[in-house]
Give the backbone structure.
Amino acid sequence: MLDGTVLDGTVRDATVRGVCCGHGRSTGQPVKGFARYEFQLMLLRRMADFQPDLVSVACEEAGASRAEYLAAHTRWQRMLRSARGPRGLGLYRAVLGPEDDERTRRWGDSTLSVHTWRLSSGTALPPEARPEPGPGGGGGERVRGGLWPGLRWEIIVGHGGAVLQGWLVRPPGDPVPELPPPGRLAPWSCVVNDAVARFPDARGVESDAPSRWVLEVGAEPGERYRLLFVHGLFQIARPLPDAWSPTPVP
């Protein structure tokens, strides 16, 4: 994947770390029982490593249990590794449907395609289809309005439909929110490119997992923080030298 940030049509502080979903192959059929709702639950799994309380609230609002979001994550991992199912861009189209926007972007000598989807459908399950609440939580309304209605899911695709990067982004044209100093950032309050825009000295730091991005930014004179993002969404900030210790990207 692209380890760095994509902004204004360029990739900054970026290195290609490998393809996350293989080359594109589509069956032309949607994946049964796994669509935008389940995809959002899947994203919660790695966020729970850093913000378990926020994930619990999100599950309650979505009408899902912990077991359901864990099951969504497990199934997504199986689909990524399937030798017979759709791969790359084809997998995302089978799960999320046709993209809402598609455009091209130059990166060096290569032309990449950028695809984005709204994750909120604006619909809810009918009452007869809603599960009963259980001891593990979940049930209830199960509104499919989206956990992050102001954001979109974006993938960057290379040759043959290979997915190089996937993350949550702000829709094109939406204003970048004002952000407090790094040490006071609220979890889930911004995406990677928001932080890049508001902290001009931000630089990418190599992360230890494909779903994570780390930015090193300045604060007060002499202070620096590392901001950790999961699937592109901000999770926690730690001051240096107490922060993570991956090697900064040259």
About this structure: The chain has two domains: 2-169, 182-239. Residues 2-169 form one domain. The two ends are 16 Å apart (CA to CA). The CA atoms of residues 58 and 147 lie 7 Å apart.
